[in-house]
């Protein structure tokens, strides 16, 4: 069983729930260029193999006393050979799904909502409200968006999988627009681009603050040094790049520590200016 990684912020515990550590093909990045990729990876300290890049997948549990909020819920069963540990990580953290009252989703892509539903289609977290960027529900349930995906294609399968995972929460959900405090010290922060309703979750306790930045990056090896590299699945690639650049600049100035569904473990990290763009350093 994967042992939990626990970060403390005042009285708040942020527990990293590891789902797996996969490698994605470099073609995930449409702007991929071997020489630039190798230089970026060298600066990041991550291995470079010319074909694939490290993309960890994880969610988080934010615990204050008995109150538990989940941020992102891993990939669905069968997603890859190297994922599938999410519910074991949750159990290892001592959290029963029935004790979770809030599901704060950075966005509704399949590698973030995968374990929200059980194999029989029922809610894994029956007592929780699903909270998400309002524009994401509209996007992921849109008939027009669905019709633009190809039958039998990967995008269609991914959308089907997201829809199946969020369906049990259709009557226990809340879409937010703008910065929204969803519980004391927990704020949804819009970071649009990767998806229309993509959000970070800012966690505050006393004078301390940490940002779970959603899919601001997919690969530490490339995107800190090259923030202009987006991924195939960006719904609005230009907006995603603008959001990433703005956020890196802010974080390198105010030194807010970050965690994310695709950042290396354990973290948290600071964003620092570097010879090539930016880099992550342990906070
Ligand atoms: Zn993702």
TrEMBL record:
It comes from the Bacteria. CDD domains: OPHC2-like_MBL-fold (cd07720). Gene3D superfamilies: Ribonuclease Z/Hydroxyacylglutathione hydrolase-like. One of its GO terms (molecular function) is hydrolase activity. Residues 56-262 form the Metallo-beta-lactamase domain. Keywords: Hydrolase, Metal-binding, Zinc. InterPro entries: MBL_superfamily_lactonases (IPR051013), Metallo-B-lactamas (IPR001279), RibonucZ/Hydroxyglut_hydro (IPR036866). Pfam families: Lactamase_B. Belongs to the metallo-beta-lactamase superfamily. This is Metallo-beta-lactamase domain-containing protein. The lineage of its organism: Bacteria, Pseudomonadati, Pseudomonadota, Alphaproteobacteria, Rhodobacterales.
